Amino acid sequence: MDDYISKPIHVRDLQEGLERWSEAPDRPASKRAYLMMIIRFCAAAAACILLVSVSWAEPVFPPGSRIGLEPPPGMVPSGTGFTDRARGAMLMVTELSAQSYARVM
């Protein structure tokens, strides 16, 4: 395969690529090799879709933190992390130096 799909990936482009590549005349001789090629391609396509979906998320930075993440539904930034008062849940984000981490662990 001498082809690529650039980001952002659109379903139509992925479908066209799959059709192009499945019609390739240079298919492997054995069914097992062909099946492995299809499995590898599907795994790569799934990884691309996962990476694209992750890149759509906007990170939220708790006050005073350099670490941003997409908080779980219902959680809002507060203090050193995120809280969901209705559920009584808290997600604390802490930054440690290598020396401090070694002492904690």
3D architecture notes:
- The protein has 3 helices and 3 strands, in the order H-H-E-E-E-H.
- It is mainly α and 105 residues long.
- The protein has a 3-stranded antiparallel beta sheet with strand order 1-2-3, with no helix packed on it.
- Strand 1 (76-78) and strand 2 form a beta hairpin.
- The longest helix is centred in the middle third of the chain and has 26 residues, at 31-56.
- The chain is elongated.
- The N and C termini lie far apart (47 Å).
- The model has no long low-confidence stretch (mean pLDDT 76).
From the structure above, extract its key features.
105 residues, mainly alpha, 2 domains, three-stranded antiparallel beta sheet, 43% helix, elongated
How do the strands of the widest beta sheet line up side by side?
Answer: 1-2-3
SSE order, as H and E?
HHEEEH
Helix content: 40-55%
Enumerate how many helices there are, as a single number. Answer: 3
* Total DSSP E strands: 3
- Structural shape: elongated
Report the biggest beta sheet as strand number plus sense, adding barrel if it closes. 3 strands, antiparallel
Termini Cα gap = 47 Å
Coarse structural class: mainly alpha
The residue ranges in which pLDDT falls below 50 over 5 or more consecutive positions are none
How many independent structural domains?
2
Question: Measured on Cα atoms, how large is the radius of gyration?
Answer: 22 Å
Fraction in beta strands: 5-15%
Average pLDDT: 76
